[in-house]
Design a protein that fits this description.
By secondary structure, the chain is α/β, with parallel strands linked by helices. Helix content is 39%, strand content 16%. It is built from five helices and five strands. It has helices at 19-35, 49-59, 77-94, 107-113, 144-151, and strands spanning 40-45, 64-65, 100-104, 125-130, 136-142.
């Protein structure tokens, strides 16, 4: 992937997480990892600084970095077309793992390219499932409010 002229190749130029973003990530860590103890086998992140920071706060691991998770404003139009099939493979391959895979990215452009129409907000979490025909569907859509509400109640995870 070749970056546009206005992007720094190290991906470190740009906005870091705000204090609010750090708080949202901390909440996700407390609920998802510490309270619900949902097992995460692999964490894949966009190389963008905010995504890497989010992955570090939530999962406490260095994520696998994938240029396939870059958002449209950084990519040239031809590159968007070129990575569409590769993005779908990235998501489909994550379902081959025996454990859950967490993908941290700027959601809706990537999701649209793999066939999911969802304008997700900051800290929204989509639980995805691969259907027998190979397509991917949204199993659950959780907002930060949903995660906060899970803090105070016991949830049974099957």
């Amino acid at each position: 992937v070749t970056l546009n002229d206005y992007s720094h190749p190290s991906y470190d130029k740009g906005h870091a997480l705000s204090e609010f973003g750090e708080t949202q990530s901390w909440i996700l860590n407390k609920v998802l990892i510490e309270e619900l103890k949902i097992p995460i086998g692999k964490v894949i992140s966009s190389p963008i600084k905010r995504c890497r920071q989010t992955a570090d706060i939530i999962f406490k691991v260095k994520p696998e970095i994938s240029d396939l998770l870059l958002y449209d404003a950084i990519l040239k139009p031809k590159e968007i077309q070129d990575i569409k099939t590769k993005q779908l493979k990235l998501f489909q391959n994550s379902f081959l793992e025996k454990e859950n895979t967490a993908i941290v990215a700027h959601g809706f452009p990537v999701l649209e390219r793999i066939g999911i129409k969802a304008k997700i907000g900051q800290s929204d979490t989509l639980i995805l499932r691969r259907k027998p025909d190979g397509s991917i569907e949204v199993l659950e859509w959780l907002t930060i409010t949903d995660w906060i509400n899970l803090i105070d109640r016991e949830v049974k995870i099957n």
